């Protein structure tokens, strides 16, 4: 059987798309190779959200070009958001490329690969690509899951927001929700297959269902969907990402508070603590609205872990704007934050905004913010020392010898000593904490 080697860049949606790429390839007769050198096909599932992801990809493509030279019969395929952004131009930029496909064309892979194989035998091979614009909502695509007990479930595709810095809406198209019945059926199948935890995926899950016709049968809002999924017996934990602050309503807060399966963790990207910058980002909420939302969340669910994304150095970010981000972070005390340097993406509105922040200021702000978010995360984690928490075991710990690794309901990684097996939920007494992980021992 011919073999493939897949490399994934970017977000959880891409991780899940890669599971579908694997599923489609394996159904088409390809088997996984142990490394790129031995593979007949090299596939890259790419990201275009920041320039840094594109640079990492270009570094890896150097190796692909070398391997292709070594064996011209080897195929190279590029999928995902970077591919969708560059489209046909890719074939001029990367002469060793055989196949390109966008995030909405995964199902086309077998046809594209067959074309490319036929092309490589002909004198003038034609580029083989598909950048179709139909949403990849279907659960009909086969999936090769990377985890036995946890699964991603896509509830919607695309994004209809217009955050001024972001390429996602242009590469993944407008928001499309999957019918609730399909999602429920998929989760039921996963649970039958032994899955204990699902993570519902969408760029803006809080807007789930809003694009479906009012009278479409079985239409549910996102909190309605959570109620429906929570009723599935055997499903231990439900997570979801990403939530948009503007669309997060009281029904969802109540669902997190009341539904036993819904975990007490919310990833709620704030992006900036300054209303001035938020306006330029077109986020659709103010600093005070975000603070009030966080307050309502903590009031309803005191145990809640809140994590966030923050962009530093957005055009027009003044010293006082950055200061407002730090004071918001201090007030909210996030459990974790992904901090990004603003990356100017061609074609986005922000790329044309005046007020470029000097590199030196960006680096200093980044250092300050990272140290602040880490200090607060560690302080929050330290408060858990001495507590006994239910942990879903994921397997052996990567670091500590002989230890197990799992996650709390609040999505904190725990390395612990004990004899539990993957997929089990066990109580762990927490005895140490860093900004990113907890340590402990299994309670008897
Ligand atoms: N749909 C999600 C996530 C989108 S991308 C959301 O709205 O939150 C993940 C994160 O990448 C964003 O939250 C943002 O913080 C960051 N990001 C997106 N575009 C960026 C850019 N041009 N420069 C820097 N960071 C960016
Ligand atoms: Fe990008 Fe904004 Fe959509 Fe998130 S909500 S994917 S940041 S446009």
How are the SSEs ordered, and which strands pair?
Layout: E1 3-8, H1 12-27, E2 31-32, E3 41-46, H2 51-70, E4 75-79, H3 80-86, H4 90-93, E5 99-101, H5 109-121, E6 128-130, E7 150-154, E8 156-157, H6 168-172, E9 176-177, H7 180-192, E10 197-201, H8 222-230, E11 237-241, H9 250-258, E12 265-267, H10 275-281, H11 287-300, E13 305-312, H12 319-332, E14 336-341, H13 359-382, E15 388-396, E16 404-408, E17 413-417, E18 425-433, E19 437-442
Residues 49-50, 165-166, 168, 203-204, 242, 244, 269, 271, 309, 311, 340, 342-343, 345 line the site of S-adenosyl-L-homocysteine (SAH).
Assign an overall shape. globular
Mean model confidence by pLDDT = 93
* Distance N to C terminus: 49 Å
Largest sheet: 6 strands, parallel
Helix residue percentage: 25-40%
The low-confidence runs, each spanning 5 or more residues with pLDDT under 50, are: none
Into which percentage range does the β-strand content fall?
Answer: 15-25%
Number of strands: 19
Which ligands, by name, code or SMILES, are bound?
A: S-adenosyl-L-homocysteine, iron/sulfur cluster
Structural class: alpha/beta
Enumerate how many helices there are, as a single number.
13
Spatial order of the strands forming the largest sheet = 2-1-3-4-5-6
Rg from alpha-carbon coordinates: 23 Å
